Amino acid sequence: MAGGSGTRFWPLSRRRTPKQVLAILGPNSLLQDTVQRIMGLAPSERTFVVTNLRQKRLIAQQLPDLSDSNYILEPSPRNTAPCIGLAAFAIRRIDPQAVMIVLPSDHLVRDESAFIQAIRTAVEVARQTDGLVTFGIPPTRIETGYGYIQFEPTDGDLPKSVHRVKAFAEKPNRETAERFVASGEFYWNSGIFIWRVERILKEMEEHLPEQYHQLDMISRAWGQPGYARTLVNRWGRIRPISIDYGVMEVASSPIYMVEGDFGWSDVGSWDELYRLHKGNANHNVTLGETALIDAKDNFIYSPGKITAMVGLDNVMVINTPTATLICPLDRAQDVKQVVEKLKREGKEHYL
Amino acid sequence: MAGGSGTRFWPLSRRRTPKQVLAILGPNSLLQDTVQRIMGLAPSERTFVVTNLRQKRLIAQQLPDLSDSNYILEPSPRNTAPCIGLAAFAIRRIDPQAVMIVLPSDHLVRDESAFIQAIRTAVEVARQTDGLVTFGIPPTRIETGYGYIQFEPTDGDLPKSVHRVKAFAEKPNRETAERFVASGEFYWNSGIFIWRVERILKEMEEHLPEQYHQLDMISRAWGQPGYARTLVNRWGRIRPISIDYGVMEVASSPIYMVEGDFGWSDVGSWDELYRLHKGNANHNVTLGETALIDAKDNFIYSPGKITAMVGLDNVMVINTPTATLICPLDRAQDVKQVVEKLKREGKEHYL
């Protein structure tokens, strides 16, 4: 899934350069890392990128091993359920027995071999149980920016790292998050899913019948002369809904959670990126030259020019050729307010 | 006097673009305003700009009414006494009876007619008494960034706005500044001087004999074939010293202070520039587009790009194509620490 246009990394992320195509943690973009990471399990002919026309060209430049047949294009954003449904229909055409791994393209995974091992386990569980499988990330801090998964032991002979999902919880407030983490029964919801395509399509048919119908119509037009028109017309009628809300929270199939202890982060905001760069040290993280006086624990991203800072701590400065953002790190979540303000004021060219 | 390379407006002011050539308060640079302001009293053939070779070209572009004969070039910075001495020798060659008005080129004057009136008074006092005349600015706040002049009533029939100078005080600490302002006997030292060229040269001969000797040697070579070499050699041997310390504080002539109630400011730092722009309103001062969330009383200078700020007050952001400065307004004085740091680290190209 590479169609998102995340606003929380403004001004670095823009409509045409969303978070997943940015190389914010290394030489490669998060998207490139995502595709690279899964390559051993899913070679390029079985890798599909769902995105939109606006982003496709840049994405295709970043993924030279993929060709047009690897792309599934959404005419407009409809949240994750229609996105996953469209991909599921596409995959079923190739292999009705296929197991599908749904990966956001803008996450960080630090331990690749643990990740691959967990994916293998999840694929096995999906095949064996015909259930819906997701990853739960053992929380490493009180975090209000993620959804949580409550789990309980499985019965049966599944691996030790596999649990039965009891409930999904949306992003909690601070107090609730503290309770979740303290209980040991709640893991972070990674947004990664594994299931047989038949299974997820059955669930969508049952719980999202309108969306399913439109997707089915699109699927039937595949390869026909009128496909583009059908796609645009049918897709346009689809009501946006997330896979969590539309399927996972109401699913009829059993849901399993595989422990995902592989150094995962959704790199959801500038302050999280700062923490990832900083590690455990107590200092400034800088990209670009700096001259700092009485300034600590700051995050300065300003390639190609010098940034001087005097007497400020815990502040981030993101300086791109056309825009600058200055904000305390603990208000990084409010960057989306800036984007909303720009939208409201009609300053679309900055988005 | 237009040779300064002020560091307190870094990164906008650089070695080649010092404060006086910047248009920081309106369409014209402070230098252009200074020359324009005095034009009615001193037409261009009697206006002399003391600067250095590095800045001359840019200054000449800003002052199209002046020609090469209006420039007096210093080979290197030697503080104000040698600068004024060199100019005094040059003016004496043209008119030994001349009264000389010494003006820094980087000050702000808001009430031009009051300024001209005060200059007329000062010129009259200099002619009548053959003393040294300076301007004292009635203080409008406790200010530790300026020197002060202590004054007492004059005897004789001088205008009411003219006082006798009792003492010069260097930049005081906070407590002393409070006492100065409360006393009513201390005005700000504007660094503007008026005197007969003969008078200041006599004072220099007496109190700065070594400097005077070198300047005299330079003056004698004027118009001779070896002038440039003499200038560089002799000037190089001059020990830098300010006119305040070298002459005013030890002068043998009587010293008068004319009240300068003409909206003066030396625009000495970013926070003063912020105050001047802001007036009495309580808001952000911005140049360039902005998107501000929970941000007040900030000073944002970032032409040509958008600046977003979240959750910060009383902070300045100065964003030029090659450098950015972020600093609380009340630490604007510490910008010179940044410049010193850059110098120390050999990053001369940023200066």
CATH homologous group name of the largest domain in chain A: Spore Coat Polysaccharide Biosynthesis Protein SpsA, Chain A
What proportion of the residues of chain A is helical, as a percent range? Answer: 25-40%
Outline type of chain A: globular
- Largest protein-protein interface: A-B, 36 and 36 residues
In the CATH hierarchy, the third-tier topology of the largest domain in chain A is known as Spore Coat Polysaccharide Biosynthesis Protein SpsA, Chain A
**Oligomeric form of this entry?**
homodimer
CATH architecture verdict of the largest domain in chain A: Alpha-Beta Complex
Low-confidence stretches of chain A: none
Mean pLDDT level of chain A? 94
Count of the domains of chain A: 2
